[in-house]
Amino acid sequence: MPASSAVKDLAALERQLRPQGWAVERTRNGHLRFVGPNDVVVTSSSTPSDTRSMRNLKARLKRSGATFSAPTPRRRPRRTPRVAEPEVAEALVLVPHAEPEPEAEPERTPADLSNPMVTCRAYGHAWEPTLPDEEDRAPAFGVLVLMKCLRCESLRRDLVARHSGAVRSRSYVYPEGFHLAGRHERGEFRAEWLDRFVT
Ligand SMILES: [Zn+2]
């Protein structure tokens, strides 16, 4: 399909996903990240450039909980005049079209993770606590303790009450590629780890 048609299809896709709580992001390497409610992540090439890859993308989004009212929006007759295309089309101008687009990016599986990531996802992180610089660790209530995974370099930020030691808040920053689309059981990562490290 021509590029302009792919852009229109994507705009239609975004219009259907947004009300369902999905966000669409462009990664630095030009891929699309669809982040659903519950943090489900589906990735695809920057513009699914043919009907088949668009269908494949929608199938993966559906498996992650998205619903679509029409099978392929571009087959529907245009209901609104061209001038009424909303701001979504403007946002799509940012999509880089330069590189030749292969098939939609195949879904990543545990086999695509680095060795440290497989180990952490199978058995948990190897946290090492550190204190950030003085000025960064003076929140109003408690002490900010940064935990860094010695293997995969994930970060955990704990706000700890100085006297009781209770963790008041916790957030995580994961390295790129750590998350996979869809849901995976821990056993899948253990099986992958065994494949790699146990002969
Ligand atoms: Zn880790």
How are the SSEs placed, and which strands pair?
Blueprint: H1 3-17, E1 23-26, E2 32-35, E3 41-44, H2 51-63, H3 87-91, H4 115-123, E4 127-130, E5 143-149, E6 155-160, E7 167-173, H5 186-197
Helix pairs in contact: 4-5
The structure holds zinc ion (ZN).
Kindly describe this structure.
- By secondary structure, this protein is of the alpha+beta class.
- The chain has two domains: 3-106; 112-197, no CATH class.
- 27% of the residues lie in helices and 18% in strands.
- The protein has five helices and seven strands, in the order αβββαααββββα.
- The chain has helices at residues 3-17, 51-63, 87-91, 115-123, 186-197; strands at 23-26, 32-35, 41-44, 127-130, 143-149, 155-160, 167-173.
- The chain has a four-stranded antiparallel β-sheet with strand order 4-5-6-7, with no helix packed on it.
- α4 (115-123) packs across α5 (186-197).
- It is globular.
- The termini are far apart.
- The model has no long low-confidence stretch (mean pLDDT 79).
- It binds zinc ion.
- Zinc ion (ZN) is lined by residues 120, 125, 149, 151-152, 154.
